[in-house]
Amino acid sequence: MKTTPSFHNAVVTGACGGLGQALARELIAADACVALVGLQRPALEALAALAPTRCAIYQPDVSDAAAMQAMAADWMGRFGAPDLVIANAGVAGGFDTAQAGDLAVMRRMLEINLLGVATTFQPFLAPMRDSGRRGALVGVASLAGWRGLPGNGAYCASKAGLIAYLQSLRAELRPTALRVHTISPGYLRTALTAGNRFAMPGLLEADEAARRLLAGVAAGTEHIVLPRRIGWLSHALGLLPARLHDRILLGQPRKPRAGEPGSTDIPGLK
């Protein structure tokens, strides 16, 4: 079923699994040409096999500006400037400021989750703008960027910074045909949430999240919450006095830190 016919040339980072893989599948099914950017080659090859003439595989570190520029140059040399760039690559993990080793976790999380979005957009922005065609730059943030959560400081900081960056870029591009979209997922059933030891209300399947995301971007929605009702819940909690809000959250299990059981891999962590 062709679900997103308005996009013809797309770039998706973090395409190896979870939301990124679901987005890539939706776009491929809609006959788009798709640049598949990620680190796990077998997963990327399985996606590319769905449409070999319309896909290309790239494996850069998204925080490496030179590598991302080389990827973009190769893609545009073959398929032209995209009309959709989705900066989806991201990592998550618990954080404890008292632990010296966790400072490296924070640095790497900021590199991937925040800097990685800018390095993804940068090489495509001028060609997309100069084409004069409508285009979309999509940054996948998180509800965790709306307010800091105990034991999750690095991730929350990276996503809050991303939301602010996308706001700035959106304002800069108002006079152009390009639109900037901020995606704030709640809990999606992906590898990043598999180790969570706390309740995840509104848990959404990645395939459904991908369909809603692409439909919202196609409709021009600038802020997309997945699922929407979790955004309402987050807003409601935000109305509580800060001390009460914090007390409620302190009673919840924390996300595993790097190296703990249930934690997810953070590529490039030293």
Helix content: 40-55%
Helix count equals 8
**Termini distance?**
43 Å
Q: Report low-confidence residues grouped into runs of 5 or more.
A: 1-5
Estimate the strand proportion: 5-15%
Order of helices and strands: EHEHEHEHEHEEEHEHH
According to CATH, the homologous superfamily is NAD(P)-binding Rossmann-like Domain
Which architecture would the CATH scheme give at its second level?
A: 3-Layer(aba) Sandwich
Compute the number of structural domains: 1
Judging from the principal axes of the Cα atoms, what is the shape? globular
Structural class call reads alpha/beta
Let me know the number of strands: 9
Q: For the report, how would you describe the main beta sheet?
A: 7 strands, parallel
Mean pLDDT: 90
* Rg over CA atoms: 18 Å
| CATH fold field value | Rossmann fold
Topology of this protein?
Elements: E1 9-13, H1 18-29, E2 33-37, H2 41-48, E3 55-58, H3 65-79, E4 84-87, H4 102-131, E5 135-140, H5 153-172, E6 178-185, E7 188-189, E8 204-205, H6 206-218, E9 223-226, H7 228-238, H8 242-250
Parallel strand pairs: 1-2, 1-4, 2-3, 4-5, 5-6, 6-9, 7-8
